[in-house]
Design goal:
Rossmann fold, two-stranded parallel ribbon
């Protein structure tokens, strides 16, 4: 199978390309820069020309504006929607022209984050609380209103070796400070890009279209719980102080407190659930060590 991957230089896109090739597929990466095949997803003509020239069997759409706090800045909001909404709409439009599959990566931020019940994959009670979430929801709706051959996979708390993420930040902070404050009332599950990539490679060859939630399995945790796990693994002596979102108070964007995603639909449709999050974090630390990134 020939698969075009947008956002190929991102931490998720990098692992998706590697996994597809490992599984015997032809993976072609695109991005805004010249490291991969350049394609500006906000330009419909460039999307049309690129996809028609490659003529893939499927597209895995990882490209997105993911800087949640800076998305709130007035000068950035149009660009956020241009990328996450209009860019996704452009991809979906050309996929329809070519009659090919599209896998779109979305987010738990399309929900309001209230309560404690895990969000069902087919729940349509959308109420995003920040600009990033609103833009990704618009992207979802562009896909679902344009295509029938689509997978919309909501993911969360993503980390990988190839980019910036919470784990890397906390490891660096733990080296520099004797005490750190970490939010303990936002609940979800950290998710390893290598495990997502394996799922996407498994999913894209099927016709089991629809909405899915994907995260590493195991108990739901807070950012505080995750930090405790990290520092224990690396024998950091840094003191970790749990605080509420309000006490932390540094974020520009409002964050959902309930990011629990119900992933049961994956197994129901024959897909392999992702491994336990603690196992994934341990494998990630080993990857960072092996790549001299710690």
């Amino acid at each position: 199978m020939k698969v075009l991957v947008t956002g190929a230089s991102g931490q998720l896109g990098q692992d998706v390309i590697l996994q597809l090739r490992e599984d015997g597929h032809t993976a072609i990466g695109t991005d805004i820069n010249d490291e991969f095949l350049p394609m500006d997803i906000t330009d419909i003509d460039k999307v049309h020309n690129t996809l028609h020239s490659i003529n893939p069997d499927a597209v895995i759409h990882c490209a997105a504006w993911t800087a949640v706090d800076s998305a709130e800045d007035l000068e950035n909001q149009k660009k956020v929607f241009d990328i996450n909404h209009k860019g996704t709409e452009n991809i979906a439009t050309v996929c329809k022209e070519l009659d090919i599959k599209l896998l779109y990566t979305s987010t738990d931020y399309v929900f309001n984050g209230e309560g404690t019940t895990p969000w069902d994959a087919d729940c349509d009670n959308y109420a995003p609380v920040n600009i990033y979430g609103k833009s990704k929801l618009h992207g979802e709706l562009a896909v679902s209103s344009t295509l029938t051959k689509f997978f919309i996979v909501r993911i969360q708390w993503v980390y990988g070796a190839g980019g910036k993420n919470f784990i890397k930040t906390m490891l660096n902070v733990g080296k520099r400070y004797e005490c750190v404050k970490v939010v303990n009332d936002q609940i979800g599950s950290p998710t390893y890009t290598k495990d997502l990539a394996r799922l996407f490679s498994e999913m894209i060859v099927t016709d089991k279209y629809g909405y899915y939630h994907a995260r590493n399995e195991g108990n739901f945790v807070s950012w505080y719980d995750l930090t405790c796990k990290l520092y224990k693994l690396l024998d950091y002596s840094t003191k970790i102080v749990p605080v509420t979102t309000e006490e932390y108070g540094l974020s520009n964007a409002r964050r959902p407190k309930n990011s629990r995603l119900d992933t049961s639909k994956l197994a129901q449709y024959g897909f392999t659930p992702l491994p336990d999050w603690e196992d994934a974090v341990e494998r990630y630390i080993k990857e960072l060590e092996n790549r001299n990134l710690l």
